[in-house]
Specification:
mainly alpha, elongated
Length: 56
């Protein structure tokens, strides 16, 4: 199981891209958000469901 930083590197996700995906105003708003950890966990869960499940 990969952690968020490994997935972020593999998928070339930046804070700016994460902000756009989750409809934040900008990367700084995403970086300072109290919900950032929840969004990162969501990415890990989606990665596991979408990538790992379909690679079998």
């Amino acid at each position: 199981m990969k952690d968020f930083l490994e997935i972020k590197k593999e998928l070339n996700l930046t804070d700016a891209k994460m902000a756009k995906i989750f409809s934040f105003k900008n990367a700084m708003a995403y970086s300072n958000s109290s919900a950032k950890t929840r969004y990162e966990n969501a990415v890990v869960n989606l990665y596991e469901i979408l990538v790992l499940s379909y690679s079998k």
